[in-house]
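Technical annex, item 7. During the second reporting period the consortium partners agreed on a shared format for inverse folding records so that results from different sites could be compared directly. Each record opens with the tokenized structure and is followed by the designed sequence. A conforming record, contributed by the partner at site C, is shown below for reference.
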């Protein structure tokens, strides 16, 4: 099983409103809610057997806008404690049967569908059964973070004190493999409305 965990539980404090429900313009799908664009990219990549959306803040509204998509939901009651709790909630749900888990913040919506497909299909050539694969654009690592084999369980040990997934990458550095991609979207996370002014539709 290949699974994707989309993180959509945060309160969007820097954005001012729930950015998951903010309409953005995407080169592939046009204008839509940010969380829907991200979910549609993962669905259209056709490389995941299951896509799980971790929700928390205003979860009813997010479930409503994704209701027509073939995704599953996990409610994280601890979402106010940081993104690490959402990662753990999602990974715990998939741990028993998934051999590959891609973890992706839903406020990184401009990644290309073809990039997601390329990442997953390239994994076998990068490493063996246990590794962490990170897409890299011009020398900088981005999203999603792809965990394979026994490294999936390591995600349950992350914490906000350890800087979440960054701490995991540091702690398990010997297992990290980078995949260079020609896609700025792997880096482009939306924290404030001003960030959207930098988007170039291509």
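Designed sequence (site C submission):
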């Amino acid at each position: 099983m290949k699974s994707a965990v989309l993180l959509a539980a945060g309160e969007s404090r820097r954005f001012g409103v729930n950015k998951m429900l903010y309409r953005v313009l995407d080169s592939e799908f046009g204008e839509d809610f940010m969380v829907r664009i991200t979910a549609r990219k993962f669905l259209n990549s056709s490389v995941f057997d299951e896509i799980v959306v971790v929700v928390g803040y205003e979860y009813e509204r997010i479930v409503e806008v994704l209701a027509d998509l073939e995704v599953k939901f996990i409610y994280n009651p601890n979402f106010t404690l940081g993104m690490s709790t959402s990662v753990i909630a999602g990974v715990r749900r998939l741990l028993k049967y998934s051999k590959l888990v891609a973890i992706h913040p839903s406020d990184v919506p401009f990644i290309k569908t073809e990039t997601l497909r390329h990442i997953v299909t390239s994994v076998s050539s990068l490493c063996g059964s246990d590794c962490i694969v990170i897409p890299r654009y011009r020398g900088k690592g981005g999203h999603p973070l792809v965990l394979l084999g026994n490294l999936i369980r390591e995600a349950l040990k992350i914490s906000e004190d350890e800087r979440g997934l960054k701490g995991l990458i540091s702690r398990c550095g010997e297992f990290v493999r980078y995949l260079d991609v020609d896609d700025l979207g792997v880096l482009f996370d939306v924290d404030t409305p001003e960030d959207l002014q930098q988007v170039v539709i291509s």
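The chain has one domain: 2-198. Residues 25 and 31 are 4 Å apart (CA to CA). All partners now use this format for quarterly exchanges.
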